[in-house]
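Sanity check

After download, print the first record. It should look like this:
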Amino acid sequence: MNTKINKTKICCLNLDKEICDFLSQDFDVYNGCLGKIVDVSESNKNNLSTHLIPNYDFPQNVHEYDVFISDLAKKEIVNYNPEEHTKTKIMGSSVYYFASKGAETLFNPIPFGCKLLHDSIINDFRPVLNIIFQADQQTVPYIIEDVTLHTCVQCYNESNYSITENFADKILCGNEIKICENIYAKTLFAGFEDEIEYNQTFRPIKNRYIDAEERFEPLLLSKRGDIISYLYISKYEIVFMLPQLKSKKQLLDILFKEILYRDFSEYFPFVDACSWKNNSQYYLPNQESLLEKKDEIKRKYENEIQKVDDEINENNKKHKFLHDILTESGDALVQSIITYLRWLGFEKILDKDKVSENDILEEDIQVDLGEKGLLIIEVKGIHGTSKDSECSQISKVRYRRCEERGKFDVHALYIVNNERGKEPIKRTMPPFNENQIKDAEHDKRGMLYTWQLFNLYFNIENGLITKEEARRRILNTGLVDFTPNVVELGSPYKLYKNNTVVCVELSNVQISKGDKLAYEEYGRYYLLTIREIQQDKNVCDQVSNGKVGIELDREVPNIDMLYLVDYKKQK
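Expected structure tokens:
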């Protein structure tokens, strides 16, 4: 039984793609952002007011995430685009926007995104794990306007440190640091001393702690003793406030493997904190030989899989024309129809588009039928269904060919790949109206659609119709019909044993054990074999009338009609 592994969800905000890709190897990662700074210098000219919508990017189910990693120093600036800051779905009579006015050239939505994120993820269930790369504290004044009334409805300030419990103290920058004397600090920062930078210091709030479980532990200090990195734990969040450095990916790798997996393992239920046990020097008795045996089986399995994959690729190349007749238009569709006709057994096929030397409208394909004359084919791939003029266009060419040949032995056929942007079974079937079919019958020309040809391939392969019979029918007029030679057996009124036993009432239709039956779905007929027949609880070798139970060689869907294959008519 396959068991789905629910990887730990990590929401990355304002992080480089390299870090997100690295974390995605082991976790379910969402690469979002706290917001992008908007350049409003042009739109704020002449003291006009610019209306904006916060452009943060959080997962819709952000409340289901337990781990968040944010970089407060990474700020992307984008130009103001009115289309991106216009609300299209409005409920009620008021419409609220953030307003940027006067001399402001850059609108910073990041502090608002920080506050919104914090309010969205804090819960009483268990503390969120919040990993933050620090930056200087920025407090932004926000003005909210109701554009329907052209009035300010609210003004307030928000800080980028509202993303967590705010311990921000002084904005100081530097790169001379001291690692604190605790295991977390030494584990994390040893070896990174020369590349660490800071822009903000922090200070625990006096008389702040009420809950005995709360803990504030400095990890890094500036040269003069200011806190620049810390661990904070409360009932609502676990915060690792980290400095800025180039090697963020390497630092996170150490943080996860050496600290989080071990001491906060409940956030990573599918990660083994003791991965060192998998190193060869710690193998248990017999483990190495068993692993070698496993690898050998895996290699054989992969080789077999590769062989099948190669066969699949070759099969796809060989039968690509069957998908092309359902998807292509123009010359690609013509070539796929030519390939199909050759498979069907037509030999002398000419691609007329390639030999046309003038602007006179010609057919796409000619098939020399020998004594039976000439078959000319117009092929179209369209997104809708055919117009009357498209259906009848081949008639004009037919008259010209008859005149050239001096005899009326020219068969005309129109093939359409209709509604080619749709899934085939959702297309109009047939894609011709009554008048178009009658006109085709009157003009002695044929019409068919490529979904018929696709199904015809399988009906021929299943032995329900021969290629010879299909070639004969393709010369018929009106709507060409490739229905196999089958006899209606009856409509099943009950199904048993996972739909492998069907009950029908026969009326002068003889069936025997081993006979072939069929059912139809969307133009294709699926072959079945009778394993056993019962009537009145008696096993019968043959029966012609009455209610019977028929055991089949495989299950069937809930079908409307069951057919008996009439092989006599196919010979």
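If your output differs, re-run the checksum step. Summary of this record's structure: The two ends are 49 Å apart (CA to CA).
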